Amino acid sequence: MASIGIIANSASGKDIRRLVAHATVFNNNEKTNIIKRVVLSAQELGVDKVIIMPEFYQMGSVVKNRLELSKELKCEIEIADFELDHDLTDSVKAIKYMEDKGVGCVVTLGGDGTNRAVAKAVKNVPLITISTGTNNVYPDMIEGTVAGMAAAVVASKRFDIESLTTKDKRIEIYKDGDLVDIALVDAVVTLETFIGVKAVWNYENIKAVIVARSHPASIGFSSIVGMRQIINPDDDFGAYVELNEKGKSVISPVSVAALRKIVASDPVILKLGEEYEFKASFRGSIALDGEKEILFDEGDTFIFKITKNGPYRVDVVKTLETAQKAGFFVK
User: Fold this and answer.
1) Where is average pLDDT lowest: 51-55, 176-180, 226-230, 250-254?
2) How would you write 167-232 as a 3-class SS string?
3) Is 22 exposed, middle or buried (0-12, 13-18, 19+ CB in 10 A)?
4) Which secondary-structure segment (H or E) carries 108?
5) How far apart are CA 23 and CA 245, in angstroms?
6) Cα–Cα distance between 162 and 200 in angstroms, integer?
7) Is 135 helix (H, G, I), strand (E, B) or coil?
C-alpha cells in the first residue's frame, strides 16, 4: 500500500508581519484547496492512503467530507489521532505519527517555522515543502497538484530515494553540551526578552546571525549574510555575521516589503561541524527561522554548529523527470 502524509499548519502565514508589513495572507480556505489538490493527484497515481495532521480548523476533515460528497475520493483519508497542543509541537507529533505508520512521503504546508518543527523529529521520510508561511526560504512555491504527483512517485518505492532527495543542513544549538534546538535557515541572537510575539521586528536588537544557507533573493535574516555571501543548500558550510557599528552596511530584505540598512561584520564561514560560540553579556533570546524560541541570561554560553542532520527533501522536478523517463505515468 502506498501512503503519504500531509502536515498543514493552520496558523502559518498569520503572524504580526500581516500588521506591520505587507505580507501575504494564506487563509485556511486556500490551504484546504491545496490539500485537496495534493490528495486528488496523489490518488490518481496509486496512493491508497493519506494521513492528515489534525488542527484547530479541521482542514483534513473538511477535505475528506467535501471529496466524499463530490464522489471524487478514491483513497482512504485518516486524520492522525493525537491530542492537540495548538502550537508547533503538533507538527512534531504529526511527523512522528506518520513515520510510525510507514508513510512514504510527507507534504508540508507552512513556512520556515512549520518545517523547522517537522525537522526536529523527522527521521527518514522524505519531505515535499509547499510554501504557505511568511518567511519561506526553506519551503518552495509548488502547485499542490504537482506536489501530490511527486509524493506519489516517492511513495511508490519504485525509485531510489537518495537519487530523488537532498539531505539538508541544519543549525544545531547547544547549551552545556546538550542540543537544545535547531534551525533550518537561520538563528538570530537578539536583545529581546519577550517571546509572546514570536517574530523579530525590532532589527536594531539583533546582535548576531548564523545561517545554513543565504542568498540575496531570500526574505528574512539570512539575507543579511546573503547580500555578501551566497550559500547554497548543498554547500558544505554555513556562515555567521555579528551586527555592530564597525561593519559594512547592506540593504537587506529582513522581512516582506522591509528593506533595511543593516551594519554587520564580514561573513565568517562555518564549515560543517565547526563551532561558533556565543557567550551572553546581556539578557535576550535566540530566534530560530524567524521565531523567538530560546531565552537566555547574561553569562549563558551557546554553541552553534552547521551539520548535515536536516531532513531528506524531495527534488520535485527531478522526481517527476525520473518518473517520466521510467514510464511511471503511462498506464
Assistant:
1) 250-254
2) ECCEEEEEECCEEEEEECCEEEEECCCCCCCCECCCHHHEEEEEECCECCCCCCCHHHHHCCCCEC
3) exposed
4) strand 105-110
5) 29
6) 36
7) coil
CA 92 to chain centre: 12
- Taking CA atoms, 68 is separated from 6, 161, 296, in Å, by 18, 32, 50
Q: d(Cα 171, Cα 185) in Å, to the nearest integer?
A: 7
Rounded percentage of the chain residues whose pLDDT exceeds 90: 81
Tens-place pLDDT, residues 102-126: 999 999 999 899 999 999 999 999 9
Pairing of strands 105-110, 3-8: parallel
Distance between CA atoms of residues 215 and 47, nearest Å: 36
Residue carrying the nine cell digits 543593516: 262
Select from 218, 133, 115 the least CA-distant residue to 170: 115
278 Cβ contact partners less than 8 Å away, ≥ 6 residues apart: 189, 208, 301, 302, 303, 304
Place of cell 475520493: 73
Domain ranges of the chain: 3-168+311-325, 170-307
List phi, psi (to 5°) of 210: -115, 130
> Using one digit for the tens of pLDDT, what is the confidence trace for 6-36?
999 877 654 544 444 555 667 889 999 999 9
As a whole number of angstroms, the distance between CA 239 and CA 153 comes to 35
Helix orientation angle between 144-155 and 28-44, rounded to the nearest 10 degrees? 40
Query: Which of the following CATH numbers is that of domain 3-168+311-325: 3.10.20, 1.20.1070, 3.40.50, 3.40.1620?
Result: 3.40.50
Least confident of 187-191, 251-255, 276-280, 323-327: 251-255
Architecture in CATH for domain 170-307: Sandwich (2.60)
Helix (H) / strand (E) containing 60? helix 59-69
- Say which residues have a Cβ less than 8 Å from residue 62's Cβ, sequence separation at least 6: 32
